[in-house]
Amino acid sequence: MTQIRIDAAKPGPTINPNIYGHFSEHLGRCIYEGIWVGEDSPIPNVRGIRTDVVEALRALKLPVLRWPGGCFADEYHWKDGIGPRDQRPSMMNTHWGRVVENNHFGTHEFLDFCEMIDTDAYVCGNVGSGSPQEMMEWVDYMTSDGASPMPELRRKNGREKPWKLPYFGVGNESWGCGGNMRPEFYADLYRQFNTFVKEYSGNRIYRIACGANTNDVKWTDVMMERVGRRMHGLSLHYYTLLNQKWPPSGSATEFGNEEYVSLLASALHMDEILKMHIEVMDKHDPEKHVGLIVDEWGTWQAKEPGSHEGFLYQQNAVRDALVAAVHFHIFHNHADRVKMANIAQLINVLQAVILTDGARMLRTPTYWVFEMYKGHHGATALSASLNAPTVEAGPWKVPALSVSASKAADGTYTVTVANLDPAAAQAVEIYLDGAELKTATARVLSGASPQDHNTFDAPDRVSPKPLAVTLAGAKHLSLSVPAHSVVAIHCG
Questions:
Q1: How many of the other CB atoms lie within 10 Å of CB of 156?
Q2: Which residue, of 66, 149, 189, 288, is most buried by count of CB atoms within 10 Å of its CB?
């Protein structure tokens, strides 16, 4: 039996709801078919946007959505995506499949979608092939209510009032697809471009600079030294890869025990990655003014057989749900520095929360982790300690249990537990020291195996179900956590 002790009397930092953010890029079928079907589609839609997707995402209380990329952002010229759709110029999506992008989903459509799902917009600007003027005019177009040319052009295109734009990224992966820059060069470019990201009509922008890839702490060091407080957030990208090796490999649904443990070990490595960058950030910014923005994370595996080579379509199994759970626990542990995280990606790409096939739609196991963890949004993180057994396969080893706890403003608690053991349930005793509990309920997400997943013929095979939990005292919970499962306990 494993004991988990949670110190409810010593609150930690607030868990920013933006840690549960998402990412939508013009990649594969994320935008087209996933979000946008067009106003003439037989698929039910509102102004061209799928109604089933809107309904599913509203249920998650999505806090923030990043767009238009990703690598696509630094070849995207926003003026190509406004005005009458039949007059918008097409382009080739050189990064993702070299397919034709018709620009039917642009600024108006994205911000309309954000309003439909009640989420904040995080727009990523073009540094790699764009100009400071182009970036300045885009922000002016979106946020100004003045009489200058850009807001007048917006009104001509059908939007009278400006939108609110809370988050803006100055470039993406400038160390790679965004320009293959050195950190010193990008730091100077950021300072230049950021100067022209103006604030109009009361809109306040949280400015996010391009940060490092995985363990490149030099990039973080240069940015913190040369940019500092001119940015509000610094991004970080880290993907969960089989054996922690590039290029991506392995199936999302067909894997053995060693591949199972290897992928979870890669996910847990996020903790070490964060510690490396936070140490550098703390050196320059001990007051933690600059947030760490993990705006691309998640599993990256081989594409599904038969799918388009450049579309990054993969299924999503119980193992992916465990990957999501341990990431959230890690982000909670670093909530004093991690202020946003955006899983890659929203629909039909990589570790998606939704998959579509024509008019059909399903929620993946990862979707349900987001849904089960809503109690952590904006709550106060609590420290948790445990001494769990380990799971080993080949050279890989992971703890059998991962846990996180938080206290909401109304005094209720959320405790989430992931059992990473593929075969054995874990008997767990949870002590919330300093709490006075009267009620407790629990739900579990699991399947017949770690490979289990939802299909369009069986879309609810993996979905949350009630789980027995015993309230053994005012601060004591007892339950059995099934193998390869995610459990969410709500008590108060």
A1: 10
A2: 66
